[in-house]
Amino acid sequence: MARERKIDMVILGLLSHEDLTGYDIKKRIDGAISFFWKGSFGNIYPALKDMEDQELITKKDISSSGREKIAYHITRRGKKVLGDWLKDEQASNELRYETLLKLFFGGVQDKKVSVRNIEVFEEQVRGDLELLKEYAKTLKNSLDDEDHLYFYLTVTFGIDSYEAYLKWCAKAKKLLA
Amino acid sequence: MARERKIDMVILGLLSHEDLTGYDIKKRIDGAISFFWKGSFGNIYPALKDMEDQELITKKDISSSGREKIAYHITRRGKKVLGDWLKDEQASNELRYETLLKLFFGGVQDKKVSVRNIEVFEEQVRGDLELLKEYAKTLKNSLDDEDHLYFYLTVTFGIDSYEAYLKWCAKAKKLLA
DNA sequence: ATTTGATATATCTGTTTGATATATTAGCAC
DNA sequence: GTGCTAATATATCAAACAGATATATCAAAT
To answer: What confidence tens digit (pLDDT) does each residue in B109-136 have?
Structure first.
């Protein structure tokens, strides 16, 4: 069965706004998107090749002098595929938190080890939360721009859940003390 | 570079409590652990083979009549590896939420599509939250049992974040209305 | 002049996912 | 007791993904 390759949708989504090179796409994914989805050169470049074969995107050589540069543009077929995916109600939402895994098996070690693991997690979250709050502050004043609105929604998702994480951290440390 | 295979740690963690077959391990992972980590036969069975070669686990044939059955037991070396992983402070915590991806690119479609995607997410979360609350209710009365305590902590993490998700869903739908 | 870091391409190895294949056993309906 | 179905139990395969690496250009600072 030909499984649906999710990276295709990420790329089509990005290309629906502007033409981009593979490298640009990677940078965009590493930005705000990375809070809820990741991508690597190892799947971006093959996906671009495949999608060009399927005529979901077209490429244009925009090399300047020695530097090779290929920009990709979404086709009508590509927009159709993106739209169908958006309208498809099923969505896989997965957490992959090594910290929780370590906590689950925490009984193997001294409680201090678990407390320390929670503290490390707490620091990570605190840092990311600050970043997200910066985003939110900037976006909040331009929610009439539709793209900003959708971006803002994903950012507030991050803020709300990270704040819940921090509250949990405090409770968890107390229970282990 | 020999990357650390996370499924190894899940398996060692489970085997640190009791001897299990590959099938048992899969069932355990599909239970409460699946909220924060997944596993499949496709990586469990190869991992068991490798870890036996590395003498982190030993196998024992417990077949009865025709049915082939192999139980695995953790070795001292295995316990060492598990302990080292628990003490290692670095941990990768990743969200992979297709719903947020769809929302991020929501501008491509009518707002109703995004609202519907949030509603579907909301239903998923509500269902999982109920399950987690069941777990919590049972565990809460036996927190002096260390294993229950650690299990309880991961469960409350789920409850707290899912409750934050639901609040966000309400806000997000309002903003899109 | 040179070194560093960012840009830009692409591939490789290993890991994980999801589906499939194969066969046994237990429980239930008829 | 026969046949059906679901659960048990093994294992493999293709596709997708992650992370590292290779190669080379370009811009900017030293």
So the answer is: 999 999 999 999 999 999 999 999 999 9
